Amino acid sequence: MKAVGVVVEYNPFHNGHFYHVSQSKDRSNADVVIAVMSGNFLQRGEPAVIDKWHRTKMALKNGVDIVIELPYAFCTGHATFFAEGAIQLLEAIGCTNFAFGSEEGTIHPFLNTFTLLKSHEEQYNALIKQYVSTGISYPQSLFKAYEELRQKEQGHTIDLSKPNNILGYHYIEAAKRLNLNIEPMTIPRIQAGFHDDINTESTIASATGIRKAIFEQQSLEEIVQFVPDETYMLLEEWQNKYISFIQWETFWPYLRFAILRHTPEQLTRFADVSEGIEFALSKAAKKSNSFNQFMTLIKSKRYTWTRLQRMLTHIFTGITKEQLHNSSKLSYIRLLGMTKNGQAYLSKHKKQFPLPLISRVASTNDPMLLLDIRATDMYALGVEMASGELIAGDYQTPPIRL
């Protein structure tokens, strides 16, 4: 059986995701679609609107055959590390291709871009340092250095100001750098841009626009045309039980407590907290009644919103630099759910996987898996404190079977 892999967050699963899944399967002539999905905390350093089990159900009910979890160490990392973990897992579970959505829509410009940056690596790094020295952020420095190199390139290269192009490039870079056999392919992103608000004249909207509509309107009626029926039903189920969808504002009292219970010096132990920012974090937490107010006080040219949110994720979950460093090598494939078709694939191929397939969490000393369990427990605690309802942890929840 042939498998195509996709890297996802499904926050939440919408009609654009459905299109991506179906196109990935059709264009690769695959028998199964395997999604490697972030857990309860995401790459931009924020909690998912609903937990990973509801998002797994959304995927399985809409064309995905197997969902595996991207470990916390990778799914909360910067784009390079995020991509490295995701693509390695898709190769480990036997995918012959991985398919990503992009604004570019064709694969050759991505390959040209990789060749350009690889062949001018020293010059590229020197340009990055040059731009960083001017005081602009590291992501902006990367982009400016790339644009300067790109002017001298004859072949068609990608626009790295577009968010899906950026992630797609990192997937390809990871596969090439690690000498993986898995082959890339890209599906054109249609209608809605990554950050666009919802457009009532369309049935496709970005996850960002959908989340914004949910939080601003406090109603699911605004998004009904943009998500499959199964997604709508699962969102309704969550809302009926847990009252609110999850964002940092939901967790703010507990995040604030996590910051203030430590001295500034103690905060520097947590992953991604760089020297100097700890004093600003403590000072702003004392003054802020909301997450948005807190972020407004600490955001600067040096510290982007996403970079700060990643720090705060690690402070909230209590994960230190040392723990994250000790969890940098993949050691398992964590199964979150499967369809009958997915189960048939696993039965046929799992003996060939280079990593163990974990379907139930038992007693473990694996440092990477312990971080996943900790992250799930802290997410569940935040949901419980906000809604008064218990949410199952990793020990209590078996893989979903459809």
Automatic annotation (TrEMBL):
Gene Ontology molecular functions: ATP binding; ligase activity, forming carbon-nitrogen bonds; tRNA binding
Tell me the residue numbers annotated for binding ATP.
7-20, 101, 164, 189-190
- List its EC numbers: 6.3.4.-
**Cellular component GO terms, alphabetical:** cytoplasm
What enzyme category does the UniProt record give?
A: ligase
Reaction catalysed by this chain?
cytidine(34) in elongator tRNA(Met) + acetate + ATP = N(4)-acetylcytidine(34) in elongator tRNA(Met) + AMP + diphosphate
Keywords of this protein's UniProt record, alphabetized? ATP-binding, Cytoplasm, Ligase, Nucleotide-binding, RNA-binding, tRNA processing, tRNA-binding
Under the heading Pfam families, the entry gives: HIGH_NTase1
Q: Where in the cell is it found?
A: Cytoplasm
- Which Gene3D superfamilies does UniProt cross-reference here? HUPs (3.40.50.620)
Q: Which InterPro entries match?
A: Rossmann-like_a/b/a_fold, tRNA(Met)_cyd_acetate_ligase
**A Gene Ontology biological process annotation?**
tRNA modification
Query: Which HAMAP family does this chain map to?
Result: TmcAL
**Family statement drawn from the similarity comment of this UniProt entry:** Belongs to the TmcAL family.
Q: What does this protein do?
A: Catalyzes the formation of N(4)-acetylcytidine (ac(4)C) at the wobble position of elongator tRNA(Met), using acetate and ATP as substrates. First activates an acetate ion to form acetyladenylate (Ac-AMP) and then transfers the acetyl group to tRNA to form ac(4)C34.
Instruction: Specify the protein name.
Output: tRNA(Met) cytidine acetate ligase
